[in-house]
Amino acid sequence: MFQQFLVPNRILYGQGAFAETGKVVCSLGKKALIISDPIMEKIGNVAMCEKYLAEQGIPYATYLGVDAEPTDIHVKEALSICKNEACDVLVALGGGSCLDAAKAVAVLMTNDGHIRDYVGSQKRFDHRPLPLIAIPTTAGTGSEVTKVVVIIDTEYDVKRMLAQPEFLPAAAIVDPTLTTSCPPSVTAATGVDALCHAIEAFISRRAQPLTDTLALKAIKLIFGHLRVAYLQGDNMEAREQMAFASMIAGMAFSNASVTLVHGMSRPVGAVFHVPHGVSNAMLLPAVLAFTKESAMGRLAMIGRLVKPELDEHSDEEVANQLIGEIKRLCLDLKIPNMKTWGIDKEKLESKIYKMANDALASGSPSNNPKIPTLEEIVELYRICYDYDFRPV
Predict the structure, then answer these.
(1) Number of structural domains the chain divides into
(2) Is residue 391 part of a domain?
């Protein structure tokens, strides 16, 4: 049975790659729309991007309204500017929210309807999207190399996850120097998001040899460098390795899919507005414990990679040790549980069945080694509410 592996046509990565933006844009279009956010404007990254475009004589417009998780409102606003300014190439600069919003704009510039119309491939894109250059400023989402987009549908209060080849950027520019502006909390949340991508890709029912190779490499790099990047934000070795790990973890999950963690995470973000990386981290250890019996061999492979001294131990012992190491990492990164974050327990209970149904409807839980029932997802949400990250 053959496998398919999709990545952007062109990837530039390493220190200094950002300076190539103008040249890459010049090869793809004649007028650019920069999609970014107020933080990127404040710290000067938008001005640098504009400078690189101007050096190549590329006219541009800007949309800087992505101020949180990406919504269909952001998409509508940016789409309007793109049409009014007759832009034919997009530059997304920022975290996963900016990149995902730009992906949606790229496809809706050439295809009609609302983004929800294309969920689950119920409707296919008839026309090629505008070319998009994705420039991440965090090391976590991997969105710059994926065919996946997550947009909040504000009418239905749900995060829509779509995965179609048309969402792949035409080019990715991954410059680790752009991540040094991330505060520790963002470094932690996005780093654990990348870890989730890699682990879920590796245990997914749709895993394949190429995604396995990338996922395992990403896991090793993240365990080796995330704590340093968190504690020493200006450590370029750690930043470079995390940017690379995030990118290859993105390649892995884009082709193998995520599983139960992401399926449950999206409703937490949609209902309680918890940042995506944080909501993933809140769920990861408990979901892996739930999944353990059905993914023992694969979790043990990860555990032996992380802790080679456990090589001779049983698969079950190594899998348990791995979950303990993930809990320890979450503690070190000051990851909160839902209660500590400030989620009201009564409100959680009032929304818990909607969240569980939305998680199942996303399709991601069906890729999990152990496919959960609705009631099992509800119980997992309850376990995660005041989850204790301290290893036993």
Answers:
(1) 2
(2) no
